[in-house]
Amino acid sequence: MATIRDVSKIAGVSVATVSRTLSKPDKVSEKTRQIVHDAIKQTNYKPDILARNFRTRKSSTVVVLVPDIANPFFSRVIRGIEQTAQRLGYAVLLGDTQGERDREITYANMVHTSQADGIIQLDCHIPFEDKNDRTSPIVNACDCVRGTDMPTVQLDNVAAAKEMANHLISLGHTNIGIISGPENSTITNDRLRGFKAALEDGGLSYNSANRMYGDYSIPSGAMAASDLLSLPDAPTAIFCMNDEMAIGAIRQAKKMELNVPSDISISGFDDISFSEFSDPPLTTVSQPAEEFGSNAMQMLYDLMNDEEPANKNIFLPFELVIRESTGEKK
Amino acid sequence: MATIRDVSKIAGVSVATVSRTLSKPDKVSEKTRQIVHDAIKQTNYKPDILARNFRTRKSSTVVVLVPDIANPFFSRVIRGIEQTAQRLGYAVLLGDTQGERDREITYANMVHTSQADGIIQLDCHIPFEDKNDRTSPIVNACDCVRGTDMPTVQLDNVAAAKEMANHLISLGHTNIGIISGPENSTITNDRLRGFKAALEDGGLSYNSANRMYGDYSIPSGAMAASDLLSLPDAPTAIFCMNDEMAIGAIRQAKKMELNVPSDISISGFDDISFSEFSDPPLTTVSQPAEEFGSNAMQMLYDLMNDEEPANKNIFLPFELVIRESTGEKK
DNA sequence: CTGAAAGCGCTTACAG
DNA sequence: CTGAAAGCGCTTACAG
CA-to-C1' distance for B26 and D15, Å? Predict the structure, then answer.
């Protein structure tokens, strides 16, 4: 591979001039620029970005910490990150953490080893050994930690859940089951709070026996639905904390020869692409997945370049999408 | 941040010794090692990996070229890549190419700029300006280019498609529609060849009017199914080239008040996680998605480290998964 | 087992 | 506008 030295020899100029021609062309005379470009073409020179990054002490790379890359919602978020990163001149390193603290720390550490300039964390953990670490530019998106000053891009999950629960209540349901995500998640807690708030507003009381746990996967939703529908006083509607679990719940209801929605209403959360095509099409809360990614990346860019972001706590809009999996109580 | 120099001063040894303590501890005396480790702890030293990579002329990074990160099959492949890369000490850069040649070239170029040591390409294109370029370690996985010497990890798509078509034929279907992927894909061509071979073996003739095109998305499958089912002599079975299109087709059939499978059999390909839970559960071909990734990464590792891979053209096993979306012809 | 020194390929003050 | 020189933080022959 040709180096900047080879180009400079052929062009008969210094390496500084070659470097400037590439990075600050306005500081080089028209004529010299021409000569240098010819030499670059002749040698098929490509600047060594690794060397440049090393010299300038910037990797121009960000690392994204994602619990599961194969999750359809997260993969859309990452698409948004990638597109914006590419536009801003950053490469994106993938850190599939499976939610494990060790792996999060390992990947987040890349900022300390100069492999990355910043971090996007999609899970509700602080990915540092020392939780008060303030040395790494980081943006927390999707499932966000409470009670820290990490910049965030999130949904108002309380409001969204409340709106969905209100929808169910307005349909006449008074005994509503809930298929919850794992306890130690901000999203889970916020959605539960919204759910409870709607119940309260509707003069209904929350019954913790109506809460079953899943892990956001389809089979876990089916299992939780089975438990709920086998209750002596089974609910007539089920509020699921994501679409996968709702799809599992629908499947389970059908298996138990229940009609959705006439026997049992089921709602989801996220609006992944399959939800529109489930049978029946799923009532859910749609979120702008790609925008979580693009906003987080843009905010991280500001942080990495010492510009104060306009807004350090972005809330993205949601929308209730009422399809056919929810209906009036019989 | 502390540098190796700081550590060496505190430990009272040369930087060479600090470096060796980290990378070749057996070349350093027990006692010195102890002193150095104390100094590392004291200074909270973390080696600058960017500097190390620059010095050793290895980025320890691979770039993966993926047409669409949000595709459920590809995201599982990437999970397999990431896990194996992590184990082998490599970082993975994400190159979402949307199948565009420009973007593929841009990302593949990272090998020439020292940003990556190798490439995993998941699409059936050669991602180089000069198609005969042999300077970059690359492995082609999933949808593979024909007629090159690029190492590959793939499925025997001809055999798999043939087996699926045989299944349909064995059910008594003689008029079988096909929802195809885009023409310029090796996978599409191979699956079509397998489909035709089965027809021929069964004494049936291939009717190109029975082939509709989709783009592997759910809506495109629904549209293609609509066309197929509106044909004067509509097929009684539809062979879809992936699960998303099959799910779209099922939805469309139901919309047209056709029962699946008693009126129309529909088969998919890939066995994504939703297929087991579609209604009816989808008959499909299952592929070991993660293993495409882990095998490709392992092979690329061998290539990058100048070890001859044991096998430069790996074929992974598939399995026909017969569920409830296909049935006897009425 | 250890250290002094060279050097990886760039960029950027500094001087002219 | 241009060049000589220093230096980013490491690793690794080489010599002892």
Answer: 20
In three-state form (DSSP H/G/I as H, E/B as E, the rest C), the secondary structure along chain B is CCCHHHHHHHHCCCHHHHHHHHHCHHHCCHHHHHHHHHHHHHHCCCCCHHHHHHHHCCCCEEEEEECCCCCHHHHHHHHHHHHHHHHHCCEEEEEECCCCHHHHHHHHHHHCCCCCCEEEECCCCCCCCCCCCCCCCEEEECCCCCCCCCCEEEECHHHHHHHHHHHHHHCCCCCEEEEECCCCCHHHHHHHHHHHHHHHHCCCCCCHHHEEECCCCHHHHHHHHHHHHCCCCCCCEEEECCHHHHHHHHHHHHHCCCCCCCCCEEECCECCCCHHHCCCCCEEEECCHHHHHHHHHHHHHHHHCCCCCCCCEEEECCEEECCCCCCCCC
Q: Do B114 and A51 touch (CB under 8 A)?
A: yes
Per-residue pLDDT tens over the stretch A54-108:
999 999 999 999 999 999 999 999 999 999 999 999 999 999 999 999 999 999 9
| Weakly modelled stretches of chain A, pLDDT under 70 | none
- A249 is near strand D: CB distance < 7 Å: no
Return the closest nucleotide (C1') to the Cα of B14.
Answer: C3
What is the CATH superfamily name and number for domain B157-287? Response regulator (3.40.50.2300)
**d(Cα A313, Cα A146) in Å, to the nearest integer?**
12
Nearest residue by alpha-carbon distance to C1' of D9: B51
What is the CATH superfamily name and number for domain A59-155+289-317?
Response regulator (3.40.50.2300)
Residues of B in contact with A248 (CB under 8 A): 277
Spell out which residues of A between 250 and 279 contact strand C, using CB within 7 Å: none
% pLDDT > 70, chain B? 100
Q: Residue A205 and residue B167: Cα distance in Å, rounded?
A: 54
Integer Cα distance of A294 and A77 in angstroms: 8
- State the Cα–Cα distance between residues A110 and A119, nearest whole angstrom: 9
User: Do the domains A59-155+289-317 and A157-287 sit in the same CATH topology, yes or no?
Assistant: yes
Structural domain spans, chain A: 4-47, 59-155+289-317, 157-287
Nearest by CB: A69 against B49, B50, B78: B78
What's the pTM?
0.95
CA nearest neighbour of A47 among A14, A73, A21, A68 = A21
Cβ pair A113:B50 closer than 8 A = yes
Smallest Cα–Cα separation from B139: which of B289, B287, B291, B304? B304
Q: With a 7 Å cutoff on the CB, does A29 touch strand C?
A: no
